[in-house]
Design brief:
This protein is α/β, with parallel strands linked by helices. About 40% of the residues lie in helices and about 25% in strands. It has helices at about 15-25, 45-50, 65-75, 90-100, 175-195, 200-220, 225-255; strands at about 5-15, 30-35, 55, 80, 85-90, 110-120, 120, 130-140, 160-170. Helix 5 (about 175-195) packs parallel to helix 7.
Length: about 260
């Protein structure tokens, strides 16, 4: 008979008071909640404490990957569920997690399907669904990589198993805030690759930008997501343009 495994829900935050209550409500059944904050000036800490979360702060920001590593190091559970403040565990997903919890081992990582909200619509196409992310895993055997942005779990040769049920992701509630985040992600992406001596040509900027629009709108059936699908295709193209244009600019501004 398997021993009961303790589940630690882990998340990193910064000024998430608007979102945090509903997020923590959806995981309040876990054995432990760990919140690692990077300098909030709102009620993030107070809300975390309402749910009995263990609250820590680290303002020495070294990127999303290292912040998640540090957050996980505070967990005492056998199994980690890594989420973000703008995500909610649906009842169906909770049931799936609880059903596999006793049998999770060091060879298995579970992927969760995210259902992403974009301008008032949960997107079923455009490459945004099921948008699987590896988030449920043995605490002792897996951790996140060091990437500054778009960090991911280092799964090596793990067996990836897809869980049923959706992780609701409030991706884009405010268009301007979403665009600011996209620009910051593009900047971090370009700086990281520039530090790795990566370069791109002017032609690459154009080809990747057009390719991003075509992939979202046509190949990933974004046209089935209506007006939001068309806007998202344009946003993805813009984000891709910003990434590659920034990388090109970093390479050329040093040649003055």
């Amino acid at each position: 008979m398997n021993d009961k495994k303790r589940l630690s829900v882990v998340l990193i935050t910064r000024n998430e008071s608007e979102l945090l209550f509903d997020c923590l409500s959806s995981v309040s059944w876990a054995d432990e909640i760990i919140v690692l904050d990077s300098g909030s000036s709102d009620a993030t800490e107070e809300i975390a404490q309402q749910f009995g979360a263990r609250f820590y702060q680290n303002c020495d920001w070294q990127g999303f990957g290292k912040q998640r590593q540090l957050a996980q190091s505070y967990a005492t559970g056998d199994v980690i569920l890594m989420i973000d403040a703008d995500e909610r565990v649906s009842p169906a997903l909770r049931q799936s997690i609880e059903s596999v919890l006793p049998s999770i081992d060091h060879n298995t990582v579970y992927s969760l399907g995210r259902l992403n909200l974009f301008l008032g619509r949960f997107m079923r196409h455009s490459g945004w669904y099921p948008d699987r992310v590896n988030r449920l895993y043995s605490a002792a055997h897996f951790r996140y990589n060091d990437d500054l942005v778009h960090e991911s779990l280092e799964t090596s040769h793990a067996n990836i198993v897809a869980l049923q049920g959706d992780l609701l992701h409030l991706t884009c509630r405010d268009f301007f805030d979403f665009q600011r985040k996209q620009l910051s992600y593009a900047e971090a992406w370009a700086k990281q690759r520039h530090s790795q001596s990566r370069r791109c040509s002017f032609f690459s900027i154009l080809s990747h930008t057009l390719g991003a629009f075509f992939k979202t709108w046509v190949l990933r059936a974004g046209f089935l997501d209506g007006k939001q699908g068309l806007i998202l295709a344009g946003v993805n193209a813009q984000y891709t343009f910003n990434k590659y244009a920034a990388l090109w600019a970093l390479s050329h501004q040093l040649q003055k």
